[in-house]
Amino acid sequence: TTGARAEPLTVAPWSKTPGEPVLWHPYGQPSPYEKNVVRRSRGATPIPGANSSMTPLQNLHGIITPTGLVFERHHAGIPQIDPEQHRLAVHGLVARPTIFTMEDLVRLPSVSRIHFLECSGNTGREWKGPGTASLQFSHGLLSCCEWTGVPLSVVLEEVGIKPEGAWILAEGADSASMTRSIPLSKALDDALLVYAQNGERLRPEHGYPLRLFLPGFEGNMSVKWLRRLKVGREPFMTREETSKYTDSMPDGTARQFTFLMETKSVITFPAPDHRLKEKGFYEISGLAWTGRGRIKRVDVSTDGGRSWSVAQLQEPVLDRALTRFRFPWRWDGAPTVLQSRAVDETGYVQPKATQLVEARGVESNYHFNAIQSWRVASDGVITNVQV
Ligand code: MTE
Ligand code: CO
Question: Which of 194, 216, 245 is the last residue of a domain?
Answer without folding.
Answer: 245
